[in-house]
Specification:
The chain is α+β, with helices and mostly antiparallel strands and about 130 residues long. It is built from 4 helices and 4 strands. It has helices spanning about 40-55, 60-70, 95-110, 115-125; strands at about 5-10, 15-20, 75-80, 80-85. Helix 1 crosses helix 2 (about 60-70) and helix 1 (about 40-55) packs parallel to helix 3. The chain starts with a strand and ends with a helix.
């Protein structure tokens, strides 16, 4: 395994220090990972999905799937065919997940979910 520590980025030039056994002629492939949603974000989201169940008459999992179908649809081309599918919430960054959750909250409100008590309890918990 080779570890890479980014030391400086200036004008799209990356200076990095490599830790590992590299020798002349070796190929190094680097993949940049973005920071995904946090466990706290995910836990709150699932509590919200559970909260919505009594309004929607669906399970938390069905509520989650409904939100995904509304906000995370994507089209993929496979063998010259366009296939409609969805992204997973695990693929979202912290910011993207926050924006997704905001959309879910807004849609739930438009569909009659009174989330005032949910958010009030959340605010009390984080104090």
């Amino acid at each position: 395994m080779i570890l890479i520590k980014v030391l400086k980025i200036n004008n799209d030039i990356c200076i990095a220090k490599f830790f590992g056994n590299l020798k002349a002629g070796d190929t190094l492939v680097a993949k940049i990972r973005k920071s995904g949603r946090t466990l706290k974000q995910n836990a709150l989201y699932w509590l919200f999905c559970e909260y919505c169940t009594s309004y929607f008459g669906m399970s938390a999992e069905e509520t989650h799937e409904a939100f995904i179908l509304n906000f995370l649809k994507i089209n993929k081309e496979i063998n010259n065919h366009i296939i409609e599918t969805t992204k997973s919430t695990t693929e979202l960054s912290k910011t993207e997940f926050g924006e997704y959750f905001d959309k879910c909250n807004q849609l739930a409100g438009e569909m009659g979910v009174d989330a005032y008590d949910f958010w009030k309890r959340y605010e009390e918990m984080i104090k």
